[in-house]
Amino acid sequence: MELELMVCGECGCAFGLNQMHLRGLKDSHKLFYCPNGHQRHFVGETDREKLERLQSRQTGQLALIGKTYAANRRLKVQVQKLKANTPKKSK
Ligand SMILES: [Zn+2]
Question: Any idea what DSSP says for residue 86?
């Protein structure tokens, strides 16, 4: 079993957590305790959360690109209509 060395931020006591357990704690942000009973939990964003945040931002950007593209197409059609309706200048 691979143990990850942890150090309690309260008392500085070192203890080991197995990696599966540690991953679960990081993912869930659940509370755990150092051997001296200090309450600890991981507050940082997990890789999965980071990925989800980036993906949702990307989805938003894609939607925006789609809207811009549609608006651009509508403008092109309008320009073509205007051109078609404008009498050509004769020399
Ligand atoms: Zn402690």
Answer: S
